[in-house]
Design goal:
With about 425 residues, this protein is an alpha/beta fold. Helices cover about 40% and strands about 15% of the residues. The strands form three sheets. Strands 3-2-4-5-7-6-12 form a seven-stranded mixed beta sheet, sandwiched between helices. The chain has a five-stranded mixed beta sheet with strand order 9-11-10-13-14, sandwiched between helices. Strands 1-8 form a two-stranded antiparallel ribbon. Helix 5 packs parallel to helix 7 and helix 14 packs across helix 15.
Length: about 425
């Protein structure tokens, strides 16, 4: 922990943008892969809790504002930020409620600062209106939602994966969203850095969805030196202020974003707006705006940055398990047990839950004889897997693979034995 604190205190200025020379966060286990390939020759080794790893990663990715409100099981993110963000030149605000927490983070981001907020299920519900605003106004923002059970207060100290659909469709309207589910403390660090990079590069909110068990467990981690943390900063305007369009057309689909107070005038409204940000009823401009905020996340480069899926013994799997977060760890053990007994089982682990990854998923779903979706809810991501299985079957001209759910909502985890028994059934 001393190394972690020292590392946070050393990064006193928001780092300048630099390419990911040694670490490619699009890879699974990116830091270890860089060490194994010789691209990274030094590392920091420590032990962290998942929530502490998230908060530390945020600061090391350049976050300099936290706005939030305490709620179990995410409060350690807030506490870490409160202890360390002032030491790196940032600001911390504990607000009166979750709505104000995300509003403050949005304001900080518009002021030119990388910003984040953290919460759990009930607080995430309160943040939805402002999350929709951030989607339409294209605000770089990272929202940490450490999932627990629900609905309502549910089990504040119990693990759950109950916000998967809320992450995708919690706010109204047609909007894109990126939601990432880490399964280890190492991934809490790596995926937080990746979340900030995606948010900054594409001017979009990104949601991190650790479940309570991943957020509060402690594990050894290997982190790169601060100088090797791969950091991306938002595009900023380079032209004359009078020519600036905060919502203009660009080759990448991502307009530059000028901080308030630097001479570039703009307007940020939750109404449909023109390229200067002013409200508009021009149907052509409304159509362009809506389609552009989706299209910028669908380019080849964006999909390479955003989509991330682990394939574990999936190449020849006849029985395919789909699981994420803490449940995927149990699924790996179950797959290994099944393989030891001659059953061709495999695992698909979506690290990026939204958008889903058809390029990796469809071939496996088309080949598998049976698919088991294991999750700590009553089948939220199963709906997406069923959709992908239907798409795979339609492309192959065959009957869709059977998709079964293995679900728990009784505050207990799904065990390797639970999953193995379903595989062997």
């Amino acid at each position: 922990m001393a190394e972690a604190v020292e590392g946070a205190a050393t990064a006193r200025r928001a780092p300048a943008a630099k390419p990911a020379q040694g670490i490619d966060l699009r890879q699974i286990n990116a830091v270890r892969a860089a060490i194994q390939d010789g691209r990274l020759t030094q590392a920091r080794r420590t032990t962290l809790g998942g929530n502490d790893a998230i908060a530390q990663a945020a600061l090391e990715a350049g976050a300099r504002f936290f706005g939030g409100y305490p709620i179990t099981p995410s409060t350690e993110v807030l506490e870490y930020a409160a202890r360390h963000i002032l030491g790196v030149g940032g600001s911390y605000l504990q607000m009166e409620d979750e709505i104000a927490g995300i509003a403050a983070a949005i304001g900080a981001s518009l002021g030119g600062v990388k910003a984040f907020t953290a919460t759990s299920g009930p607080g995430f519900s309160l943040k939805q209106e402002n999350l929709g605003y951030a989607c339409l106004v294209e605000i770089p923002l990272v929202v940490i939602n450490v999932m627990r059970g629900g609905p309502s207060t549910g089990g504040p100290t119990d693990p759950g994966q109950s916000d998967v659909m809320q992450a995708r469709w919690g706010t109204h309207g047609d909007h894109p969203i990126v939601a990432i589910a880490p399964a280890t403390v190492q991934e809490c660090w790596e995926e937080t850095v990746r979340a900030f990079n995606i948010s900054e590069k594409y001017r979009t909110p990104v949601i991190l969805l650790p479940d309570a068990k991943v957020g509060q467990m402690k594990e050894p981690v290997i982190l790169p030196p601060l100088s090797q943390v791969p950091i991306v900063n938002r595009p900023r305007p380079t032209g004359a202020p009078e020519e600036y369009e905060a919502f203009g057309q660009t080759a990448s689909g991502v307009p530059p974003l000028a901080p308030f107070g630097e001479g570039y005038r703009s307007h940020f409204t939750g109404l449909y707006h023109n390229r200067k940000g002013l409200p508009t009823k021009d149907v052509r401009l409304v159509d362009q705006l809506q389609k552009r905020i989706h299209a910028k996340l669908e380019t080849r480069e964006a999909r390479a940055d955003i989509l991330k899926t682990e394939e574990f013994f999936a190449a020849d799997a006849e029985i395919l398990v789909v699981a994420y977060g803490i449940t995927a760890r149990a699924a790996k053990d179950a797959v290994l047990e099944a393989r030891a007994q001659g059953i061709k089982a495999g695992l698909l682990r979506p690290i990026t839950l939204w958008p889903s990854d058809p390029g990796r998923c469809l071939p496996h779903l088309a080949r598998a004889k049976r698919v088991i979706v294991a999750e700590l809810n009553l089948g939220q991501y199963r709906l997406e897997v069923e959709r992908l299985a239907y798409e795979a079957a339609r492309a192959a001209g065959k009957v869709p693979t059977e998709v079964l759910g293995l679900n728990r909502v009784d505050t207990r985890l799904i065990t390797p034995r639970d999953i193995f028994q379903e595989i062997a059934r």
